[in-house]
Amino acid sequence: MSGPQIPTKLLATPWSASKETYYKQLRKIQLDSTFDWGAQGFSFILPRSLNAITDVYLRIDLPTLNPGENYKFSRGKYCIDSMSFRSNGSEIYRIDSYELFLREWEEGLSVEELAEFRRVFMGCNSSTTRTHVGSTVFIPLALPQTRYARYAHQEGVNYGVLPCRFGNSTTEIVLNMNTAAHLTLDASHVVPSIAGTANLEFKELVGKPSLINAFSEGRGSYSTALPQYIPLNADFQNLTANTKHTFRQISPTGSVYSLVFYLLNQGSHVHQENDASAHLTSITVRLDSETVIDMDEHEIKMSAYAHGYRQTNNVVDKMPRLQFNTMGSKASISFRGAIDFRNIQNCEIDITVNADCKCRLYSTRYSRIVLLSSGEFRKYLD
């Protein structure tokens, strides 16, 4: 018979061994008392004593509030406003909306995975009952290779480590924190200060010296592709149900593989949760005055399904997306096609939505992050 031979399931999987053994340990560094709600431009430099890391977490011990003054669901999602990753003082990339960054990860999780992620990392033991009881949150920070920048539930994918030997170069992460009001649904509910109680926890690779040396030195060789959300309008715009709204003169840059419509209820953003989302009922895209996409509500649903964006839990709604690739849910881990918007002069988009809401439009693009031989990071849009 022709075709490749596959192992028989009547035999047990052969015994195997890993060539190199290692483990990961957490190293904790306490942040000083200037770090608090509303802190802007709070910077910390990755310690030179680090070798290779997989994750960095911002750990905050949230205090217990007065009874009846409850936190939002997934409270850890609303602590950070934005984050930037810098090398020798130059910004390499930026997470413009950290709640959106974490929301996309949550929406790809199953019901069980979402509940466990929120319990362990977001300080939320329930997705049905809000509580005033304090908890500890571990907020993953967006390193270049972080799994949290990739759409969740991509099995069999290794995200690798970040080599941390930068020579005389400095690598820093800069945080802008939300005010305490962002953690509750009511302006009268006050979250106390966290000054002097927050920590950074680095998940560091530990193993034989030969293994550590191999994965800690990436100068001149380390390169990774980072999917980024880039805002295309300055702020949210209010939309009226079943009424056409046009985004004019928007200017995506680089290799864009999708457009994302971040839809929230109208009104103040501070006391809102972002689990629920309206959906599009029509969309038309014109590039340089030529209509390239024109879909109604049913075609939009079919496109989302075909690209792998399917409702996997009953808590976080799928955000509307417009894809320029194949199998979009996997585009954050492998190249699935994109449009090079550097060759396009004008882009206009018409949409209608099913309910009154507000919208902020984002492009998702590929950026190549490279560690030069000098120990400095650079970003390229190829």
Description:
By secondary structure, the chain is mainly beta. It has two domains: 22-221, Adenovirus Type 2 Hexon, domain 4, CATH 2.70.9; 227-368, Jelly Rolls (Sandwich). The chain has helices at 98-107, 111-120, 209-216, 297-306; strands at residues 22-30, 42-45, 52-62, 80-87, 90-95, 135-140, 162-163, 171-177, 199-207, 223-231, 237-239, 245-250, 255-264, 280-287, 290-296, 321-323, 339-340, 347-353, 357-371, 377-380. The strands form four sheets. Strands 10, 11, 13, 16, 17, 19 and 20 form a seven-stranded antiparallel β-sheet that branches. Strands 1, 3, 6, 7 and 9 form a five-stranded antiparallel β-sheet that branches. A four-stranded antiparallel β-sheet has the order 2-8-4-5. It is globular and about 65 Å long.
Q: What is the compact description of this entry?
A:
This protein has helices at 98-107, 111-120, 209-216, 297-306, and strands at residues 22-30, 42-45, 52-62, 80-87, 90-95, 135-140, 162-163, 171-177, 199-207, 223-231, 237-239, 245-250, 255-264, 280-287, 290-296, 321-323, 339-340, 347-353, 357-371, 377-380. With 382 residues, the chain is mainly beta. The strands form four sheets. Strands 10, 11, 13, 16, 17, 19 and 20 form a seven-stranded antiparallel sheet that branches. Strands 1, 3, 6, 7 and 9 form a five-stranded antiparallel sheet that branches.
